[in-house]
Structures are given as C-alpha cells and as structure tokens.
Amino acid sequence: MTSGRHFLQIPGPTNVPERVLRAMDRPVPDHRGPEMPSLVAEIRAGLRGIFKSEQAEPVIFPGSGTGAWEASLVNTLSPGERVLTFQNGHFARLYAEAARQLGMKVDEVKLRWGDAVTQEDVEGNLMPEHRAVLIVHNETSTGVTTDVGAVRRGIDRSGHDPLLLVDVVSSLGSIDFRMDEWRVDVALTGTQKGLMLPPGGAILCVGPRALAAAETSRTPRYFYDWRPVIRDMQQGFFPYTPATLLLFGLREALRMLFEEGLEQVLARHSRLAQGTREAVRAWRLSLLASDVARASNSLTAVVVDEVDSGTVVKVAAERLNLALGVGLGQLRGHVFRIGHLGSLNELEVLATLAGTELALLYSGQRIELGVGVAAAQRFFAGVTADLQRPSARESVASREGVG
Ligand SMILES: Cc1ncc(COP(=O)(O)O)c(C=O)c1O
Asked: Which of 11, 102, 365, 371 has the fewest CB atoms found within 10 Å of its own CB?
C-alpha cells in the first residue's frame, strides 16, 4: 500500500471522521447496563431530527441497507399483497426483488436508468389494490434523486392511500428528506453513508400507519420484527445484543451533524456536488442523470465513452489509492461514480477530481488534465475565468505588446 491517505470516494461506505472513531474507541459496555438509557434516548431524538419527524419511531438493527429493506417489508405487508415499484436503477430493482422474494406481488414500472420517478409516474400507475409504494429517494447506481414530495402529490392525486416506503440509504444526512411533511410511512437507511459511520447498522424510522400495519401483517418475522425493538428502545435498551460501539459512534455523528447544522450539511453537499458536476462538464463527459436538475448531491455517475469504466476504477485504486464506484448492473463498464457525501470538504473533492483526471488519462480516455479541477475550483471560489490572473505566457505577450 502506498503512503498517504486512502481516498475512499465511493458513494458509501464513506470516510469516518476522527471524532466518530474516537467515540467508538472504548471498552465494550454492558448493553443492559446503566449507560444505555441516556445513549439510546439521545440517539432516538437525534434520528427524529435527521429524518425530520416529530413522532415516528426510530428502529436500529444490526445489519445494512438490505436488512432495512427486509424490515420495512416484513413488518408492513403480507404475502400476496400488491406493491408498486419503479425500476430506475440497480437499488430500486433490488428493493423490488426483496419484496418479490418475500412473497409480495410486485408491479414494477420500468424507467430509464438515469430517470427520477415523477408525480405522473406515480399517479398514472397507482391502483386501489396497491398496498404500498416503494421508492428509492437517491438511486446510488445512477446518481439521480427522486422528489419524494412529488411522489406524495402523485399518491394524493390518485385518490388511493397506499403506504409509502422510502429508501434513504444514500440521501439521509446529505439530501433534503422530510418524513412528516411528505407523509412517509417508513424511511430506511444504513449507517455507512451520510451518517458517517462504519457499515453494520440498519436504521428505520416508522410512522404511525406503518406501526399499525405491523399489527396485522402476516409475513413471518423474528429478528426483523420491529415491535420488540421499539418497545425496548423506548426504555433505552434492545431485545438482543446491539452493535454497542456503533451506537456510541452514531451518537457522536448525530452531534456533529447538529453542530454543523442540518441545513448547512445539506448545503455543503449541494455545493460539493455542483463543483463535481462542473468538473464533469469541463472534461466533456456526461452525467448519467437524464435531467441535471435531478442529479444527486451525494454522488455523481459519469458516463465514459472511450474506455471501460471498470478500468478507470481499477487504475484509480491501483495507481492512486483512490476508490471510485464501479458501474452497477447494466451500467457496468459504462459508468463510474464519484461519491461526495458524508464527512467531506472542498479540498478533498478537488483532490478526488485531480485523481479522477489522472485515472481517466491513465485508462486511455482523452482528457485535458486540470480542466475539471479548475472548473470546480472556480465554482468553489465563486469566480469566473475572466477574473483570474493571466497565465505567464499571456502576461509576457501583453507586456511585449504581442497579441
Ligand atoms: C440506495 C441504496 N439502497 C440500498 C442499498 C443496500 O445497502 P447495503 O449495501 O448496506 O445492504 C444501497 C447500497 O449502496 C443503496 O445505495
């Protein structure tokens, strides 16, 4: 391994800040001991703040985003019930597949991978038999964010009343999400993205209608039954051995997000994403997102035309110790992804863009070195090209009166 820092710029897991690492670097406590109630109470309150919900119940399982999908489905739905899904990427496809494997009847609307789900998509496809609508807020394979407020309007205008289950795995803590305002019934994530923690935790926030649905759902469940977890978490404990050290990390990560201010955190992600998109434009490469207005603030999916995107990712890892995201599913070979979420600043994004330029060049993609970095720098600095000092050659030429 080369010296210097490993640049982990995949769209999750993300970099774990020192403060969070230090909070977890402690002896393992008794998970039924006196430290737990205040820890769990602070986490419950903090999660409600991040999900923007006054009353929903936070639930934490050891697991990952995939486990959170399963928990969202087995608690609210019964085998044979119909759900509406929209396949606009790899993770939307897999969430639908989880529902299918668990016995639900899935009506899957196929969209272009790169599209967001629109109000019209929802309104035009929702039927009274649909018990739930499954949405991936930020499709991590394509770098596209769906407007969940528009999804809610689509449901309302249809006149039907399904449960709304939303995957916020790569948006929570980096892209605006409003559980109560959009009347989301279940929102779910993992610990390893915007929450800046190592992998290992599945987190859900469960609204009143989903809590009621869990009382009548007939899907067999044991570990992912959220009822005992909610009951025990309300008292500051868990019905099984939780990932205790991850909880200490989570408390610290939540404190960090609130110290910076959630709205500032979201604005920072927006700025870093915009700088990255400026770089892509300067490279004369394209975003996979069909509509730049829906391009994600937590990652950028870049289409390459002259080389295999897997080569770019491989070269970045081998030569630069820079981890970029590969193209997933049908995007394999065509797309690579730059993660810009979690604990990250402008300088780190610039370094990532510089590394990406080199990796593109080393892979054989025609690219002018420096143009992407400069475009992002100009965006971060808020200056246009005209304001810059002329290059050495230009200033000599103008001094000597040659033009
Ligand atoms: C949007 C989305 N949903 C679900 C998952 C699956 O999460 P995990 O890999 O933690 O199981 C991911 C993983 O990247 C994701 O990006």
From this structure: 371
